[in-house]
Specification:
It catalyses: beta-D-fructose 1-phosphate + ATP = beta-D-fructose 1,6-bisphosphate + ADP + H(+). Helix content is 36%, strand content 24%. It is of the alpha/beta class. Helix 1 (38-48) packs across helix 8 (250-260), helix 6 (185-192) crosses helix 7 (199-211) and helix 8 (250-260) runs antiparallel to helix 9. The longest helix is centred in the C-terminal third of the chain and has 17 residues, at 265-281. Bound molecules: adenosine-5'-diphosphate (ADP) and 1,6-di-O-phosphono-beta-D-fructofuranose.
Length: 312
């Protein structure tokens, strides 16, 4: 069982518009409401592909109820921790060429007591988990030290921890010795303080995160694919998408596919890239099912040319 933890989940509203024009009334050609938040999406993708997963989510207010209803409707196994604040709604505006504009709320404050309740739920459920996957932004409230303490306790208890977050939360996961971290290009740049221009720059940044404590680094690079740096070496892969529809949740699908396939080696990277590409071809943050996956376009190579330039 893979336990996911989303400290700041959301109800995701995606509106498809012809073109984004500031100051105008825009008519949506289509709209979708999905349960959201990075760990929530990882659980949804795993479930859609027959992999057991439980999602821990703090929820509150009308949006919290809606989130629980949406997740129950999809059949996601839930550990919902009630909180006083209102679960956030995140908005996506998707244009026909695949351009996506996102507006993410800060989310409700998690009090110290609420964070302790969520942490207890996580630590208890972690005893039965193959992986604990903590994803997404931290809500207002918990200090970074409290978050780092949760990561350290999970690793100290012998859990395989994966962290997909940004800024100090990503670095806390690295310092705690997470078995896996999944930064995207911007998160990797922020973590090492340098913007990567080539695959060699990406590999060097991943190596720095491993030297700082992470076991493996899966760096996602949008249309440039992904790079995996772990104890076995370096792999890079791409999965071209002819008609990108919505990139929302693509990184979550990549991570879910990688974990589902064993989180190691070319087979796992290939699977992750196939799930990521499929998510990009689907509207909103819909997660791919087995019928959506096409592994034939995925190309994974060891020790990629370090001078290859990043495009996206
Ligand atoms: N425009 C795209 N074309 C093809 N694949 C994409 C595209 N955008 C994302 N992907 C796939 O989804 C994965 C995750 O996307 P990325 O944007 O890096 O992550 P995140 O959603 O976490 O920001 C990529 O590694 C890639 O496999
Ligand atoms: O926690 P954050 O960083 O605000 O992100 C939350 C958003 O990220 C998502 O999980 C999508 O993730 P990505 O587009 O980064 O893959 C949405 O479902 C959610 O609205």
């Amino acid at each position: 069982m893979i336990l996911t933890v989303t400290l700041n989940p959301s109800v995701d509203r995606a509106l498809e518009v012809d073109a984004l024009v500031r100051g105008e009334v825009l008519r949506a050609a289509d709209s979708h409401i999905d349960p959201g938040g990075k760990g929530v999406n990882v659980s949804r993708a795993l479930l859609a592909n027959g992999v057991r997963s439980t999602a821990v989510v703090p929820t509150g207010g009308a949006e919290g109820e809606q989130l629980v209803d949406l997740l129950n409707a999809e059949g996601v196994d839930l550990l919902s921790v009630p909180i006083a604040g209102r679960t956030r709604s995140n908005i996506t505006l998707a244009e026909p060429d695949g351009t996506v504009t996102k507006i993410n709320e800060a989310g409700p404050v998690l009090s110290d007591t609420e964070f302790a309740q969520v942490s207890k739920a996580v630590l208890d459920a972690a005893e039965h988990a193959d992986w604990v996957v903590i994803c997404g932004s931290l809500p207002p409230g918990p200090s970074i030290d409290a978050f780092a303490d949760l990561c350290s306790r999970l690793v100290g208890a012998g859990n395989r921890l994966a962290v997909d977050s940004s800024g100090p939360a990503l670095l806390a996961g690295v310092a705690a010795g997470a078995a896996l971290v999944k930064p995207n290009r911007e998160e990797l740049a922020e973590a090492v303080g340098a913007e990567p221009a080539t695959l060699g720059d990406v590999v060097e940044a991943c190596r720095r995160l491993r030297a700082a404590g992470a076991g493996a680094v899966l760096a996602s690079l949008g249309a440039d694919g992904a790079v995996l740096v772990d104890a076995d070496g370096v792999l890079a892969g791409v999965s071209p998408v002819s008609v990108p529809r919505s990139t929302v949740g693509a990184g979550d699908a990549l991570l879910a596919g990688f974990l589902a396939a064993g989180a190691r080696g070319a087979a796992a990277l290939t699977e992750g890239l196939a799930w990521g590409a499929a998510a990009v071809s689907l509207p909103g943050s819909r997660m791919p099912t087995p019928a959506d996956l096409d592994r034939t376009h995925v190309r994974v190579t060891p020790d990629p040319d370090p001078s290859r330039l990043l495009h996206s």
